[in-house]
């Protein structure tokens, strides 16, 4: 078994041409003979790289619109020949076969094509690569003698090894082989999931496989004694924290990422400029307004004490006016996620406050696509899968069940509170006023406790506010507490055996109650 394998001949056939010209130029400087096909060959030739055409080498032309080009014994013989077996080397010499020491292949963009809105089945099927996976698997199988690169991220280390070691090391080839089989496995899984999803009328598949790639290791997890890492899901095309660009600040923590993800999820649900304030993965403030800066101030005012050391989510570009509000004395922000940041806003946030060097600014891009419709959660022994809770019942489907009707001016607060309650841990109670969050009762074992906590958080601001509950009220006791606090409307799913008693309590206090017919538990 050889350790250092010099690279004399390389086969290159890639779909993703990022960094390819620089790699090929480096190989050429090291005296490597490069063989290539189709669009890859043309790309390299246009970049000034000398390339030999695989079709000329095999004596067999590309055909069937490029579907057949590398599937030939003179290609696979050169990859699969074991170098320290005389019979193998005699065979490739007898048939004038070139031994390939390096194979650089990545596959047609099937997953990206399948996720494109409006794409046809025929377009997806055409992106099923045949020759590429075969080349990758052959090279990975014979990794004792052949190096295989499947990602532009590997090119730098490849060239570095050739410069310093005069070839590729066995350890590096073994690493590349493992990555190669990961690459083809994820590719085949994406195709299988597409084919199954296209034929089973939306049911959950009989088997489910995750193909995630580690992006980075974190300093630690929820606590310092726990290790942690971030893995990217290549199938997710919507704006997200894993693919976001960090503009400034310290390294993100595990808890930062959880809170930022939740903050982003909240603001996605609003058409107007919206801001969310997260603390320990529950919203302690949120608001909408016609101007982002006003929504920001209202959100921070929701619970000023809890807002200290929080993370913020925005659904609009953070402008200078909003940044000015965030820079006011006495406020400390851990991290901010937004579609974008104005240059002036970045300047203010990273130079003016005392926490300027620490705040993490995360740019996720336009929020034009919803996150995946499937929610996954690991438990001991397996994983739970469900539809994501993204379906909002329209107000036209809601029913006012009390004698007292809802005032026209109150509907905006009712809609806001109902949208917010889905983001709070059950048992969840939120108070909303002027389309802002002013009180939250989260994660309590008793709904009565959640009501009392939300009212206590809001204080005098409870008067004139709207109360939303993620599930029905089993007893009228919470209605009594709401009436005493001056709450002017209640929105809840309904469905309790004691709905009549709860409605009667509202009628006794003149509080309108709206049933939505949909529950929003969050565990």
From TrEMBL:
Catalytic activity, EC: 2.1.2.3, 3.5.4.10
InterPro entries hit by this protein: AICAR_Tfase_dup_dom_sf (IPR024051), Cytidine_deaminase-like (IPR016193), MGS-like_dom (IPR011607), MGS-like_dom_sf (IPR036914), PurH-like (IPR002695)
GO molecular function, one term: IMP cyclohydrolase activity
GO annotation (BP), single: 'de novo' IMP biosynthetic process
Keyword Transferase: yes
Residues covered by the MGS-like domain: 1-150
A GO CC term assigned to this protein in UniProt: cytosol
Gene3D superfamilies assigned to the protein according to its UniProt record, in alphabetical order: 3.40.140.20, Methylglyoxal synthase-like domain
Keywords: Hydrolase, Multifunctional enzyme, Purine biosynthesis, Transferase
Domain of life: Bacteria
Pathway, per record: Purine metabolism; IMP biosynthesis via de novo pathway; 5-formamido-1-(5-phospho-D-ribosyl)imidazole-4-carboxamide from 5-amino-1-(5-phospho-D-ribosyl)imidazole-4-carboxamide (10-formyl THF route): step 1/1; Purine metabolism; IMP biosynthesis via de novo pathway; IMP from 5-formamido-1-(5-phospho-D-ribosyl)imidazole-4-carboxamide: step 1/1
Reactions that this protein is recorded to catalyse: IMP + H2O = 5-formamido-1-(5-phospho-D-ribosyl)imidazole-4-carboxamide; (6R)-10-formyltetrahydrofolate + 5-amino-1-(5-phospho-beta-D-ribosyl)imidazole-4-carboxamide = 5-formamido-1-(5-phospho-D-ribosyl)imidazole-4-carboxamide + (6S)-5,6,7,8-tetrahydrofolate
Family statement drawn from the similarity comment of this UniProt entry: Belongs to the PurH family.
Domain notes: The IMP cyclohydrolase activity resides in the N-terminal region.
Full protein name: Bifunctional purine biosynthesis protein PurH
Naturally occurring in which organism (per UniProt): Stieleria varia
């Amino acid at each position: 078994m050889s350790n250092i394998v010099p690279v004399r001949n390389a086969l290159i056939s890639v779909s993703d041409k990022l960094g390819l010209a620089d790699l090929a130029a480096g190989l050429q400087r090291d005296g490597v003979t490069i063989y290539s096909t189709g669009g890859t060959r043309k790309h390299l030739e246009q970049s000034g790289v000398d390339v030999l055409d695989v079709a000329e080498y095999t004596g067999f032309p590309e055909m069937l619109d490029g579907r057949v080009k590398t599937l030939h014994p003179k290609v696979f013989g050169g990859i699969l020949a074991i170098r320290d077996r005389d019979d193998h080397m005699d065979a490739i010499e007898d048939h004038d076969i070139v031994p390939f020491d390096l194979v650089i292949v990545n596959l047609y963009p099937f997953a990206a094509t399948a996720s494109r809105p409006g794409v046809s089945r025929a377009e997806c099927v055409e992106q099923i690569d045949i020759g590429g996976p075969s080349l990758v698997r052959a090279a990975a199988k014979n990794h004792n003698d052949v190096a295989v690169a499947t990602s532009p991220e590997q090119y730098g280390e490849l060239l570095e090894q050739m410069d310093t070691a005069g070839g590729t090391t066995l350890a590096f080839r073994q690493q590349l082989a493992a990555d190669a089989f990961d690459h083809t496995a994820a590719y085949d899984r994406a195709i299988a999931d597409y084919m199954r999803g296209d034929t089973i009328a939306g049911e959950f598949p009989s088997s489910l496989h995750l193909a995630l790639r580690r992006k980075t290791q974190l300093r630690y997890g929820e606590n310092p004694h726990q290790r942690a890492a971030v893995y990217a899901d290549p199938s997710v095309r919507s704006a997200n924290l894993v693919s976001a660009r960090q503009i400034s600040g310290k390294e993100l923590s595990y808890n930062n990422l959880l809170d930022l993800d939740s903050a982003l999820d909240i603001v996605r649900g609003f058409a107007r400029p919206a801001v969310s304030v997260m603390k320990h993965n529950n919203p302690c403030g949120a608001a909408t307004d016609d101007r982002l800066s006003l929504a920001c101030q209202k959100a921070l005012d929701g619970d000023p004490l809890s807002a200290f050391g929080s993370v913020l989510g925005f659904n609009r570009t953070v402008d200078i006016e909003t940044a000015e509000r965030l820079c006011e004395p006495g406020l400390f922000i851990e991290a901010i996620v937004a579609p974008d940041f104005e240059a002036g806003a970045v300047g203010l946030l990273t130079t003016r406050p005392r926490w300027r060097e620490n705040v993490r600014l995360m740019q996720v891009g336009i929020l034009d696509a919803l996150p995946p419709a499937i929610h996954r959660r690991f438990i001991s022994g397996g994983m739970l899968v469900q539809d994501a809770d993204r379906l909002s019942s329209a107000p036209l489907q809601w029913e006012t069940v009390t004698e007292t009707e809802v005032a026209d001016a109150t509907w905006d607060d009712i809609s806001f509170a109902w949208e917010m309650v889905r983001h709070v841990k059950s048992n969840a109670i939120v108070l909303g006023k002027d389309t802002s969050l002013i009180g939250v009762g989260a994660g309590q074992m008793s709904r009565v406790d959640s009501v009392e906590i939300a009212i206590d958080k809001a204080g005098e601001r409870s008067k004139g506010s709207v109360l939303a509950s993620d599930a029905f009220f089993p007893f009228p006791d919470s209605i009594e507490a709401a009436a005493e606090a001056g709450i002017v409307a209640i929105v809840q799913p309904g469905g309790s055996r004691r709905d009549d008693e709860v409605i009667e309590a509202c009628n006794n206090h003149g509080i309108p109650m709206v049933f939505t017919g949909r529950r929003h538990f969050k565990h």
